[in-house]
C-alpha cells in the first residue's frame, strides 16, 4: 500500500500495488473531490489489464493465480504461457533450444551453467510472483538467449499466517486402479509460516518446508505380464536348465515399476527488515533429493533380480542470498546483493558409498552377504534365458561411480535514478565466480585388476605418480578435474577444478515524452571459462610420447570472450486503450559447461594421433576448446488493446535468428577429418505470433487464453543431432546441410484457463471463497517425414 499525505487534504492510500521489474501492475487511480472529503480514504486498485509502461513482453503469475492451478511445478506454470513449449520435461521458448533460459530468485542468478538448468526451484506455495520475459528483455538482464525467469519469494505479513497443503494420489495399491486411474504413490506436503518477528520492528519472517515423494517416477502405460519357471538357455556360461532366481518368476504390474521412487525434501525462507532508508532481505534454500538408478524402463528388465543393489543418486543444493536496498532520495536508490550456491551430486553404491574400489572386491562384498564372484574382482555371471535375453545376478556388483560439485559466489549492484521527469537511468553490473569439480569412473573392475592383478595378489608399481594417473585413467575410463585420479579433492596443479568467471555490466536509459517511452540500452558480457587448451589442436606436438599423454605444462587457458549487446525498445499509446511497442536486441549465452569441461586424459585421448578417430570421441566427450558462446538477434513488435473495461488482448510478432549453435561435427573439415569435436556451426531461425486474451473477473468468471503460432527451423534441434552421420566409420562420409523444422517445433500451441469463484461476501456462508478451475492445453503436434518401406 502506498500512502500519500498533503497539507490541506485528507490522507489516502492505494493498496494492492505490485511492482515487478520496473512494471507497476495496478491501474492508474485518479482522486475525485468526494474522495478527499473523507478522512483516511483507501483505494484498492486492480491489476491493469495491459502493461502501458513496458516496451517488451512480460508475463506474470502471482500467488493468487498459482494457488488455483490444478497442478504443481514451475515448468508446468511456465508452459501455459504463450511462446513456451514443454516437451520431454524440457522447456523451449520461442524456438530456442533447451537450456537457453536464465533463472533468478530474488535478484540472484540461480542458473547452473554446468547444466544450463535451474539450480534452485522455489516451492510453489513460497512464490510471491513468477515472471517470464521471452526473448526481448532490456539491457538490465542477460545470460540467456531465449528467456529470463524471475521468481520472488514470499515475505512475512503483518500478522502470523500458517498454512498446510497435502496432496496425494495414493488411493490404490501398486498395479491397481482408483476410479479407473493408476496410482503412482504421489505425496506432497507443504507447511508455510509467515509473520512479523517479535520485538524487532519492521522485521518479518517467512518459512516454507516441502516433502515430496513419488513411488513410481516414470509414469507410463505398462501392460501387466508374468513369466514363471524361467531357466537358463545355456548361453553366457551358465548350464542350460538352471532355474533363475525367485523360482524363475518375472512379473510386472499394470503401469508400475518396482523401486523407482523419488524423494525430495526442501526448506526455504526469507527474512526482511525495513529500517528506512535501508531495506534488507535474506533468502535461503536447502534441498535434498534422492532416487535409485536402474529401475527405469526398459533397463529395469535386466536389473529385475538385483534392484536391491541399485545405484543411488543424491543431489544436495544450498543457496543463500543477501540483498540490501538504499534509498538516497525521492528519485534515486541502489541495490547491492551477494549470493552463495553449492550443489553436490553423486551416484554411488549404497553399501560402500564413496569407497569405489570396494564395489567390485569380492572380499568386501562377501562381508555384506554378496557371494558367487568368479574371481577377486569379477562378479557372478549373468543369467541368459529365451535365447540370450540376460538378467543380472542378484549379487552382481556395481561397476561405476561418479560425483560432481558446483560452487559459486555472485555479486550484483544496480543503480536507478530519475534524472528528470522524462529521463530515467539504470546502471549496474554482475559477477559470478564458479568452482567446478567432476569425477567419473566407468570400469571399477578394470581399475582393480590393473592395480592389483587378476586375483588381487600382484600390486603394480609405477615409475612415477604421473604414469599411474595416466595409465589408470586410460584403463578404467576415468574423467576427472577438481579431483585426482582416485577421487580425492585437489585445488592446485593440472587437475585443479575449473574456475569459470562470468561478468556483465549494463547502462539503460528510459525516456518518456507524452506517454511515449523509449528504452536505449547496451550490455557488456564477459565469458571466461579458463578451460585448458592444447598447444597444437592437430596433436602433432605437445605430447609425452612415452605415455601418449598431452604435456600438461604446455596447456594454456582459453582466451575470454567479450560481447557488446545493444538493446532498443519503445512503446507509444495510440489511444487510452491501445498501446504499440517494438523491440530489437542482441543476446549471447554459453553452452552448458558439462559439454565443455573434461579432464586432461579425455582431451589427450581425443586429439592423440594414436587414439583419436574421425567417427567418434572418447567416452562421448568430444574436444571443446574451440567452443564460443551462441548468439541471438531478435525483433519484436506488438499491440496491447483494451476492448472493454474487463477484457483486453495482446498480440505480438517476433523473429529470432540464432548463430554459432553447438554442433557435434568433424574437425577440421569433412574432407580430411582428424577427430570429432564440438563446433559452433549450427544455426536456426524462428518467427511467430503470440496472442493473449484476458477477461477480468466478471460475474464470478475470470478467463485467460494464451496462443502461439510459430515456425522454428534450423540445421539441428540439439548439439548431438549430427551424431549419426558423423559417426559413420567411412572417414570421407558426406551429408547435406539443410534447413528443416526442429523437433520441438509446434505450429500451434495454446492454453485456455477458466476460473469461476465466489468472492468474499458472495455466495453465503457455504459457497463463499469456493470455486472451480478449468485448464485446457492444446498443440498441433510435430512435423515428420513419412518414408515408404521399399519392401512393402
Q: What can you see in these coordinates?
A:
The chain is mainly beta and 792 residues long. The chain has ten helices and 45 strands. It has a 21-stranded antiparallel β-sheet that branches. Strands 6-13-14-9-10 form a five-stranded mixed β-sheet. A hairpin with a 7-residue loop joins strand 1 (2-4) and strand 2 (12-15). Residues 24-39 have low confidence and may be disordered.
User: What does the main sheet amount to?
Assistant: 21 strands, antiparallel
Rg estimate, integer Å: 30 Å
Which structural class best describes the helix and strand composition?
mainly beta
Tell me roughly what share of residues is in helical segments: under 10%
Distance between the termini: 72 Å
Q: Strand fraction band?
A: over 45%
Helix count, per DSSP?
A: 10
Instruction: Give the mean pLDDT.
Output: 89
Unreliable sequence segments:
24-39
β-strand number: 45
Envelope shape: globular
List the helices and strands and how they pair.
Blueprint: E1 2-4, E2 12-15, E3 19-20, E4 23-24, E5 41-44, E6 59-62, H1 63-66, H2 74-78, E7 84-87, E8 90-93, E9 101-105, E10 108-109, E11 111-112, E12 117-118, E13 127-134, E14 147-153, E15 161-168, E16 177-178, E17 181-182, E18 187-196, E19 203-214, E20 225-227, H3 245-248, E21 250-252, E22 262-275, E23 278-292, H4 299-302, E24 312-329, E25 332-348, H5 362-367, E26 383-385, E27 389-391, E28 401-420, E29 423-441, H6 444-452, H7 465-476, E30 478-481, E31 501-513, E32 516-528, E33 532-533, E34 543-544, E35 549-550, E36 556-557, E37 561-573, E38 578-589, H8 600-607, E39 630-644, E40 647-667, E41 675-698, E42 701-714, H9 723-726, E43 740-741, E44 748-757, H10 764-767, E45 771-779
Helix pairs in contact: 6-7
Amino acid at each position: 500500500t502506498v500512502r500519500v499525505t498533503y497539507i490541506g487534504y485528507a490522507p489516502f492510500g492505494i493498496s494492492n500495488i505490485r511492482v515487478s521489474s520496473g512494471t507497476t501492475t495496478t491501474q492508474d487511480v485518479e482522486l475525485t473531490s468526494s474522495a478527499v472529503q473523507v478522512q483516511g480514504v483507501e483505494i484498492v486498485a486492480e491489476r491493469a489489464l495491459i502493461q502501458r509502461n513496458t516496451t517488451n513482453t512480460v508475463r506474470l503469475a502471482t500467488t493468487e493465480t498459482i494457488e488455483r492451478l490444478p497442478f504443481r511445478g514451475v515448468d508446468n506454470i511456465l508452459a501455459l504461457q504463450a511462446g513456451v513449449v514443454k516437451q520431454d520435461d524440457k522447456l523451449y521458448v520461442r524456438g530456442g533450444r533447451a537450456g537457453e533460459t536464465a533463472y533468478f530468485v530474488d535478484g540472484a542468478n540461480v542458473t547452473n551453467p554446468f547444466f544450463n538448468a535451474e539450480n534452485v526451484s522455489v516451492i510453489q506455495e513460497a512464490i510471491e510472483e513468477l515472471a517470464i520475459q521471452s526473448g526481448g528483455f532490456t539491457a538490465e538482464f542477460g545470460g540467456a538467449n531465449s528467456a529470463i525467469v524471475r521468481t520472488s519469494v514470499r515475505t512475512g505479513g503483518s500478522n502470523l499466517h500458517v498454512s498446510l497443503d497435502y496432496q496425494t494420489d495414493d488411493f490404490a495399491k501398486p498395479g491397481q486402479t482408483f476410479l479407473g486411474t493408476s496410482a503412482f504413490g504421489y505425496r506432497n506436503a507443504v507447511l508455510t509460516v509467515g509473520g512479523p518477528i517479535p520485538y524487532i520492528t519492521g522485521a518479518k519472517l517467512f518459512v516454507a518446508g516441502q516433502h515430496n515423494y513419488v513411488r513410481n517416477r516414470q509414469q507410463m502405460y505398462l501392460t501387466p505380464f508374468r513369466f514363471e519357471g524361467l531357466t537358463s538357455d545355456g548361453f553366457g556360461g551358465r548350464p542350460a536348465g538352471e532355474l533363475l532366481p525367485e523360482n524363475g518368476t518375472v512379473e510386472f504390474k499394470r503401469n508400475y515399476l518396482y523401486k523407482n521412487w523419488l524423494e525430495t525434501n526442501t526448506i526455504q525462507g526469507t527474512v526482511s527488515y525495513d529500517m528506512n532508508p535501508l531495506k534488507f532481505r535474506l533468502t535461503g534454500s536447502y534441498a535434498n533429493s534422492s532416487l535409485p538408478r536402474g529401475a527405469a524402463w526398459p533397463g529395469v528388465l535386466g536389473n529385475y533380480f538385483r534392484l536391491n543393489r541399485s545405484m543411488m543418486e543424491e543431489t544436495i543444493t544450498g543457496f543463500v542470498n543477501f540483498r540490501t536496498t538504499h534509498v538516497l532520495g525521492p528519485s534515486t536508490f541502489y541495490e547491492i546483493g551477494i549470493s552463495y550456491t553449492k550443489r553436490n551430486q553423486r551416484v554411488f553404491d549404497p553399501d560402500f558409498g564413496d569407497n569405489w574400489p570396494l564395489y567390485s572386491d569380492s572380499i568386501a562384498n562377501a562381508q555384506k552377504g554378496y557371494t558367487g564372484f568368479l574371481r577377486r574382482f569379477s562378479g557372478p555371471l549373468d543369467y541368459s534365458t529365451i535365447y540370450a535375453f540376460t538378467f543380472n545376478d542378484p549379487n552382481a556388483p556395481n561397476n561405476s561411480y561418479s560425483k560432481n560439485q558446483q560452487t559459486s559466489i555472485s555479486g550484483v549492484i544496480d543503480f536507478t535514478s530519475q534524472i528528470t521527469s522524462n529521463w530515467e537511468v539504470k546502471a549496474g553490473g554482475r559477477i559470478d565466480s564458479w568452482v567446478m569439480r567432476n569425477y567419473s569412473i566407468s570400469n571399477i573392475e578394470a581399475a582393480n585388476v590393473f592395480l592389483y592383478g587378476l586375483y588381487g595378489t600382484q600390486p603394480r608399481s609405477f615409475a612415477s605418480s604421473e604414469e599411474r594417473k595416466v595409465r589408470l585413467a586410460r584403463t578404467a575410463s576415468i574423467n576427472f578435474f577438481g579431483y585426482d585420479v582416485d577421487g580425492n579433492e585437489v585445488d592446485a596443479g593440472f587437475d585443479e577444478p575449473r574456475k569459470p568467471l562470468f561478468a556483465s555490466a549494463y547502462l539503460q536509459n528510459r525516456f518518456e515524452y507524452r506517454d511515449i517511452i523509449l528504452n536505449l540500452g547496451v550490455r557488456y558480457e564477459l565469458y571466461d571459462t579458463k578451460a585448458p587448451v592444447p598447444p597444437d589442436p592437430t596433436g602433432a606436438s605437445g605430447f609425452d610420447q612415452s605415455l601418449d599423454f598431452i604435456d600438461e605444462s604446455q596447456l594454456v587457458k582459453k582466451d575470454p570472450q567479450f560481447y557488446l549487446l545493444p538493446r532498443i525498445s519503445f512503446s507509444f499509446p495510440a489511444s487510452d486503450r491501445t498501446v504499440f511497442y517494438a523491440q530489437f536486441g542482441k543476446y549471447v549465452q554459453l553452452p552448458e559447461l558439462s559439454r565443455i569441461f573434461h579432464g586432461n586424459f579425455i582431451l589427450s585421448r581425443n586429439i592423440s594421433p594414436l587414439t583419436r578417430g574421425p567417427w567418434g570421441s572418447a567416452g562421448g566427450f568430444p574436444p571443446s576448446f574451440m567452443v564460443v558462446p551462441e548468439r541471438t538477434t531478435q525483433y519484436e513488435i506488438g499491440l496491447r488493446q483494451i476492448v472493454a473495461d474487463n477484457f483486453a488482448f495482446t498480440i505480438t510478432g517476433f523473429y529470432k535468428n540464432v548463430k554459432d549453435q553447438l554442433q557435434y561435427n568433424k574437425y577440421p573439415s569433412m574432407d580430411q577429418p582428424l577427430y570429432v569435436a564440438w563446433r559452433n556451426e549450427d544455426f536456426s531461425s524462428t518467427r511467430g505470433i503470440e496472442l493473449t486474451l484476458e477477461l477480468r473477473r466478471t460475474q464470478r468468471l475470470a478467463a485467460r487464453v494464451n496462443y502461439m503460432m510459430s515456425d522454428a527451423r534450423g540445421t539441428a534441434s540439439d548439439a548431438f543431432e549430427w551424431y549419426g552421420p558423423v559417426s559413420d566409420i567411412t572417414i570421407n562420409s558426406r551429408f547435406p546441410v539443410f534447413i528443416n523444422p526442429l523437433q520441438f517445433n509446434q505450429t500451434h500451441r495454446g492454453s485456455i484457463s477458466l476460473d469461476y469463484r465466489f468472492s468474499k461476501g458472495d455466495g453465503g456462508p457455504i459457497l463463499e471463497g469456493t470455486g472451480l478451475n478449468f485448464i485446457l492445453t492444446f498443440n498441433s503436434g510435430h512435423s515428420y517425414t513419412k518414408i515408404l518401406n521399399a519392401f512393402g
